[in-house]
Structure formats: C-alpha cells, structure tokens
Amino acid sequence: MSETHNKLVVAISSRALFDLEESHELFEREGLQAYQQFQRDREDEPLEPGIAFPLVKKLLALNQHGNPDLPAIEVILLSRNSSDTGLRIFNSIERFGLEIVRAAFTNGSPPFPYIQPFGAQLFLSTHVEDVRNALSAGVAAATILPSKAPDISHDQLRIAFDGDAVIFGDESERISQEQGMEAFARNEREQAETPLSGGPFRGFLSALHEIQSAFPPDKSPIRTALVTARSAPAHKRVILTLRQWGVRLDEALFLGGRDKGPFLQAFGADIFFDDSRHNVESARLHVATGHVPHGVSNDAK
Fold first, then answer.
1. Distances 109 to 11, 77, 130, 207, 249 between C-alpha atoms, Å
2. How far apart are CA 150 and CA 287, in angstroms?
3. How are beta strands 222-228 and 251-254 bridged, if at all?
4. How many whole angstroms separate alpha carbon 28 and alpha carbon 80?
5. Strand, coil or helix: what is 154?
6. For residue 242, is it left (φ>0), alpha (ψ between -120 and 50) or beta?
7. Domain containing 214: what range?
C-alpha cells in the first residue's frame, strides 16, 4: 500500500501561499543577492497571506474533524527559494499554525519534478511553466492569478470548476472552436449518451468526492460547483457523464455564455478553475482564480 493511499495531497508554491510580490519585484529589479538579503533581514517578520492561503487553511482544517472515514489532507510546499531564504516562509507557516511539514526548496530550479514523488493530486503555482509541466505529467495544476480575495463568511470549503478541458476532456470544446456552435450543439445531442472523457481535474474532483462521502450530504465541509458556459441541450451529456463516473457535484450552473464572475461570488467560491483566459479574467475580479493552461483554448497559435 502506498504512503499516499487514502490521502489528498496538494502541492503549492510559496508565492501562491504567501504574498511575496514585493520581494519578487525586488528580485527582478535588483537580482538574487538583494532578494536573499531582503528575506534574511525580515525572516522573523511573518509574510502576509497570499491568494491561495484561505484554500490551504480550510483544507488543513478538514483534518480536525476526527472522522475515521475521512481521507487525510496534506499540503506540501514547493518553492524556488533556497532553504536559507525559505526560512522566512517556514517561520510564517509556523506563525499561522499551518500543519505543513514537508517541502522542497530548489534554489531557482523548477520544482515540478518533485510533485509526483510527493504523490500530489493538485499543484498550485504562480509559475506557468511549472504548471504546464505538471499538467503534462498528468497532475491537476493551475496558475494562481492575482485575484480579489473573497469575503468569505463561511467555514465550508467551496470549490468551483469549469467543465470542458478542466473536469472533462477538450474534444467538445475543440469542435465548438473549430467548427462553430451549431456543430457543437449537434455533436452534444448526438453523443448525449456517450460519457465525456476525463480532463486534468477529474482525479482531484474524485478525491474531493471521497472526502464528501465521509459526511452526510447536508453536513459536508466541502461544497463543489460546476460553472460552465454550456446551456441546454448540451447540459444532458455533462449530467450523464458525472452520473456514470459516480461523482457528486453539489451545484451545476449552465450559464449559456454569461460572465461567470458574479455567479462565482454568489456561490462563495474559495477558488475557481477554468481553462479560458477570458473566463478567468472575469472570475478573478470576484474570487480567487486558477488558470488551467490545458486544451484547445491554450494551444500554441
């Protein structure tokens, strides 16, 4: 039995977890030596929470439920800092009481090779190439964008997903972009009984479903939502696919092309994942947002 059996492992970069923009700008402006000195001089000053901090805090809080059927939750820190400059990051983790004990500090090298040895099912980073490499290796991954920090008034962890090229494969989206909406609608009607293929976030969604299954539906600490530009009749294939997978989504919003941001704010999403740059630009004005650089919308032009 593997060490990560019955465990949800999330890997996150230091810039997604904490606000390191000031020191990153210093690094780009004055170089590595100035950055290193900046962090050493302030290593006892806690960093401010970053965009993904509320998500991590809520994920780790799931471990406090004491439910024997609940998979363990672990968060791994992957950082391009050295262990020396990373001391401030670990001091901040300790100050905020986050149960993060495993980390890889790569001193400028890409950290993505360590994602799979740690057994992570999700990787969040501000570095798009690391995210692309993780996706290529079959790990759900997203680039955390500068976003509005949500005004969260609930303890429940709420995660929202786009459908095509995120939860599902991009075959239908490819038809839409290459042949038009009429061809897309015709294909979805004809293939309504044929399940969609799985996208990069199918495994992560299944892991969340496993956590939800440890609780009565009305007492789950996690709530999930599908927020898609699809509309009727293209909704049928989505519903039947999720039913065939045996995966629960608490809410499904079929928006027919409406901007997603206000709906995500109404849902109270702690984070939203989408492959479309247009959609994430709308969403990040309202909630924390991760861009998934996968599928036809992100093919090199």
1. 16, 14, 10, 29, 37
2. 5
3. parallel
4. 14
5. coil
6. alpha
7. 157-298
Exactly one of 130, 162, 170, 274 is catalytic; name it: 162
Q: Which amino acid is at 53?
A: F
| Mean pLDDT within 193-215 | 94
71 close to 211: Cβ distance less than 8 angstroms: yes
pLDDT at 97 over 80: yes
The per-residue pLDDT for range 138-170, each reduced to its tens digit, is: 999 999 987 765 566 688 999 999 999 999 999
Residue 228's identity, in one-letter code, is T
CA distance 232 to 229: 10
| 162 flagged as catalytic | yes
Is 192 inside a domain boundary?
yes
> How many CB atoms neighbour CB 95 within 10 A?
12
Last residue of a domain, one of 81, 111, 144: 144
- 123 half-sphere exposure, CB direction, 13 A CA radius: 31
**pLDDT at residue 218 greater than cutoff 80:** yes
Token representation of residue 162? 């786009």
Q: Which residue, of 119, 144, 169, is where some domain finishes?
A: 144
For the cut 80, the answer to whether the pLDDT of residue 86 exceeds it is yes
- Give the three-class secondary structure for 8: strand
